[in-house]
Amino acid sequence: MENKAITKIGVLTSGGDAPGMNAAIRAVVRAGFYYNLEMYGIYRGYEGMIQNEIKKLESKNIAHILERGGTFLKSARSAEFRTEEGRQKAYDNLKKHGIDALVVIGGDGSLTGAHLFFKEFGIPAIGIPGTIDNDLAGTDHTIGFDTACNTAIEAIDKIRDTATSHDRLFFVEVMGRDAGFIAINAGIGSAAAATLIPEKKMPIERLVERLKARTKAMKTSNIVIVAEGGKSGGAAEIAEKIKKQLPYYDIKVTILGHLQRGGAPSSYDRVLASKLGVSAVEGLLHGKHDVMAGIINNKIVFTPISKAILGDKEVDEDDFRIAKILST
Ligand code: F6P
């Protein structure tokens, strides 16, 4: 390995937690030990960096965490880290511990923090995409996305049972912030009558037509998936509008919410997190910085953080078309 200068790496999780974050921390720390580095856990993300909640990690700290949801390092969204003073405090604390590189596990906000920090203080940092939203470019999937989709689909299967028993129309809202990745997967995987995502406009009239056609086709249950973050509103607002046009429907709304963030990571997320954790440490040792480790077509790829956070990753047109074909 090159770049012998790195001897102490700090690892943190930040932003919304995601299943598989623990598996990623474990992989980062184990890889660090493998390469004879000292590894430090920074608790509560950037907030903990500012408050000096930094501890040297030992093997026992990461035992039996691979299979656990959440993040044992805890997470936070730090307002203070957005200020120069906050970042200076954070940098001073890293220096106190002699930490010379960082691995940041999180979504776009967390990686933006790592990018800024590198620009201001020159601390080499590698990001690992950890968010259920799957909204980062430079990786086919983010850690936690697969588990969140599984959780959403399992919940919708249960809703389907009661929807069918009562001939009801359900509007189910899923997470994803401004992105429709969870929604489109949940829609395909649960035979939804329609899937509404922020990236594509679906006029209410079209949804009404689709539901009318399904009534004609004697469908006994209808589940419409609504991604949060859409311009026409969430599941409750859409349900209100539909109620006015289709008063004969018995309509219910379920917001899946934070249950999509919890639970043991799926095998896919465990493996993804493990591969990215090791790759991030090896990337740092090879002199990489200000990049995010991701997997594209089953190969590890490092993408500049500035590109990964652009917010231009799009729901695949094929996925959208397939969801539409299967719901008519
Ligand atoms: O980014 C992950 C996510 O769960 C989004 O899907 C959601 O919009 C947001 O975080 C919720 O954030 P919080 O837990 O802070 O309410």
Your description of this structure?
Its cofactor is Mg(2+). One of its GO terms (molecular function) is 6-phosphofructokinase activity. Catalyzes the phosphorylation of D-fructose 6-phosphate to fructose 1,6-bisphosphate by ATP, the first committing step of glycolysis. There is one protein chain. The protein is built from eleven helices and eleven strands. It is α/β, with parallel strands linked by helices and 328 residues long. The chain folds into two domains: 8-144 and 265-310, Rossmann fold (3-Layer(aba) Sandwich), CATH 3.40.50.450; 146-261, Phosphofructokinase domain (Rossmann fold, 3-Layer(aba) Sandwich). It has a seven-stranded mixed β-sheet with strand order 3-2-1-4-5-10-11, sandwiched between helices. Strands 7-8-6-9 form a four-stranded parallel β-sheet, with helices on both faces. Strand 1, helix 1 (21-34) and strand 2 (38-42) form a beta-alpha-beta unit. Helix 1 (21-34) packs parallel to helix 9 (267-285), helix 5 crosses helix 6 (181-189) and helix 6 (181-189) runs parallel beside helix 11. The longest helix has 22 residues, at 145-166. The radius of gyration is 22 Å and the shape is elongated. The structure holds 6-O-phosphono-beta-D-fructofuranose. Residues 16, 107, 131-133, 175-177, 228, 261 line the site of 6-O-phosphono-beta-D-fructofuranose.
